[in-house]
Design brief:
alpha/beta, Rossmann fold, three-stranded antiparallel β-sheet, 8 helices, 33% helix, binds fructose -6-phosphate
Length: 262
């Protein structure tokens, strides 16, 4: 696991974008897994700048990590819409190469989830999965207690998550109580994980996920089991890490060796 501590959020976004852009440069038909939420917005905008500078996204395929269940597609909190606005509108990924978990209540949701897993497998699997982390350590919408081998499924949102995300639902009662998320087992099958966190509110979850025991009670701790993880943190999110100075020294070394694009 490489842990990169960045001076601030804009640097974190820029560094993460270099990683994704390099992966696309090496493998133009790569498969990208995308988290929504506030954290990766800077990354998505930075990727738009890479596209403006000539990076071709036309071969890239995208799979969404999760979505609120039953939320109207035009609701401002809808994750698919969020990614459309902050990322897809600024790059040239064909709409036919964008897939999102099916989230309408009037369908056989278990079959839809199984089909989503098959679609990921048929695309060759996810090459780079972009992830944020919840204040309660959730990954995707895998809330504390989720199986570390879990697959894409309908889940109930925890009270902590509902509270953390209520800012996106100005109309009381609008927030769905459930969501469809890739499982931790699905996420761990991606070839590379890119976990991002910024701000003091994430510091405790980051510390437990990266330095605590691997446990279903802190689902993001499962990234410790993955062989190829890069974690981008700003200083506030890294503030509780016990090995913070070692990670900073490793980051400096990587910079000196030209392994980071600072
Ligand atoms: C979003 C997702 C969530 C968020 C997490 C952090 O697709 O899967 O796990 O990454 O809740 O959200 P923000 O970035 O808004 O703090």
């Amino acid at each position: 696991m490489r842990i990169v501590i960045c001076p601030d959020e804009s640097d974190l976004s820029r560094q993460a974008a270099f990683l994704v852009a390099a992966a696309i440069g090496r493998s133009p038909r790569m498969v990208l897994g995308l988290a929504a939420g506030a954290t990766p917005i800077g990354l998505y905008h930075a990727l738009g700048r890479h596209h403006a500078d000539g990076l071709d996204f036309s071969g890239v395929a995208v799979f969404g990590l999760d979505e609120y269940f039953g939320l109207a597609a035009d609701h401002p909190a809808c994750f698919r819409g969020n990614i459309q606005r902050h990322f897809l509108n600024g790059v040239n990924i064909p709409p036919s190469r964008v897939s999102w978990p099916y989230c309408r209540p009037d369908e056989d949701i278990a079959a839809r989830c199984a089909a989503y897993e098959r679609a990921i497998a048929d695309a060759g699997g996810i090459d780079v999965q972009v992830l944020g982390i919840g204040v309660n350590g959730h990954l995707g919408f895998n809330e504390p207690g989720s199986s570390l081998g879990g697959r894409t499924r309908l889940v109930r949102l925890s009270a902590t998550t509902r509270h953390a995300n209520e800012r996106n639902f100005p109309v009381a009662g609008d927030m769905p109580e459930s969501a469809v998320t890739q499982g931790i087992g699905t996420i761990l099958e991606a070839r590379r994980l890119l976990l991002m966190a910024s701000g003091e509110s994430k510091a405790a979850a980051v510390e437990q996920a990266l330095e605590g025991p691997v446990t279903s009670m802190l689902p993001a701790s499962a990234v410790q089991l993955h062989p190829n993880v890069t974690v981008f943190l700003d200083r506030a999110a890294a503030s509780r890490l016990r090995r913070r100075e070692e990670y900073e020294a490793e980051t400096d070394m990587a910079r000196r060796l030209g392994l980071l694009n600072l």
